């Protein structure tokens, strides 16, 4: 599948409100207590972590890339139609993937593949040897996409959590 005209860039502070609205439409698990403050904190901690996939606006503002090339996220100016997101967090030790979301009207066009390629390229530049992804067990729509990208559950681990608030 190709994602013609898709541009991948690092999100910035001007994108926060739009990304939060987008997640309500396109992301699973909206019980995460997302807020502008939390996304802003992410951007301050790891400025390149929020990857945005955009289609060119009617004015053709974003630079386009071709799927099949290694896509590297570039800082840019908001202006395209937001069609996908991925948080590619690097904590200095591990590479973590969260919030892979593609707008329902644009799924199965290679957008998730382009976002994952950009994230993996970002992690490689940091020297990461592995990336882990947080995927809801009940989000069975996402499982084939992650599997096709080469990701698999790690059976010897489970996630243990403790709510802090």
Automatic annotation (TrEMBL):
<dbReference type="Pfam" id="PF00583">
    <property type="entry name" value="Acetyltransf_1"/>
</dbReference>
<feature type="domain" description="N-acetyltransferase">
    <location>
        <begin position="37"/>
        <end position="165"/>
    </location>
</feature>
<dbReference type="GO" id="GO:0016747">
    <property type="term" value="F:acyltransferase activity, transferring groups other than amino-acyl groups"/>
</dbReference>
<dbReference type="InterPro" id="IPR016181">
    <property type="entry name" value="Acyl_CoA_acyltransferase"/>
</dbReference>
<protein>
    <submittedName>
        <fullName>N-acetyltransferase</fullName>
    </submittedName>
</protein>
<dbReference type="InterPro" id="IPR000182">
    <property type="entry name" value="GNAT_dom"/>
</dbReference>
